[in-house]
Amino acid sequence: MVAGWFTHDSGEEDFRLLGTRCTACFSVFFPREDSFCRNPGCGGGELTEVPLSRRGRVWSYTDGRYRPPAPYVSDPETEWEPYTLLAVELAAERMVVLGQAVPGVSVADLTVGMEVEAVPGVLNEDAGTVWTTWHWRPVEEAR
Q1: Angle at 118 between CA 113 and CA 122, to 5 degrees
Q2: Pick from 37, 40, 33, 84: nearest CA to 62
Q3: Per the domain annotation, does 101 fall within a domain?
Q4: Which one of 9, 107, 123, 135 has the fewest CB atoms closer than 10 angstroms to its CB?
Q5: Residue 16's closest CA among 73, 54, 48?
Q6: Domain containing 115: what range?
Q7: Distance between CA 65 and CA 131 in Å, rounded?
Q8: How many domains does the chain fold into?
Q9: Are 130 and 122 in contact (CB under 8 A)?
Q10: What are the beta bridge partners of residue 89?
């Protein structure tokens, strides 16, 4: 897990990506920014942590059909399983955030404009360590 990028101690209903907001220009950033305002037109202000919208709309999507090269995690001894990658425009922030779809959702299940929500997910498991992340799940599939 990348510390500070999302909540991790709460249940699925409370799961949120975490960003930062500049108090001077109100720009929101994800991944978070803790040093300076990334808005080139801003003189800078204090950056505060903000939970981002849980839901958004599919802006674009594709599938990953190749094994990534080193240094990415990819065990050549295991069978490669394709994954679905989404670009999602968050509802309130009007920013696009990338992430994988929940397991079982393929590009055939998606359409541009479809509503999705951020849920906790697993990126990788290695020697007893679980690397957590977020996944996007179609809202129609929820509950």
Answers
A1: 125
A2: 84
A3: yes
A4: 9
A5: 54
A6: 54-143
A7: 21
A8: 1
A9: yes
A10: 57, 96
Inside any domain, residue 111:
yes
- Rg (Cα) of the chain, in Å, rounded? 16
Query: First vs last Cα of the chain: how many Å apart?
Result: 25
Q: What is the pLDDT of residues 71-83, one digit of tens each?
A: 666 667 777 778 8
Report CA 44 to chain centroid distance, whole Å: 26
Six-digit token string for 58: 């599919």
Q: Which two tokens stand for residue 81?
A: 């399983």
The verdict on residue 25 lying in a domain is no
Residue 140 tokens read as 């129609």
Q: How far apart are CA 141 and CA 143, in angstroms?
A: 7
User: What residues have CB less than 8 Å from 111, skipping those under 6 apart?
Assistant: 58
What are the pLDDT digits (tens) for 82-124? 889 999 999 899 899 999 999 999 999 999 999 999 998 887 7
For residue 88, the model assigns a pLDDT of 98
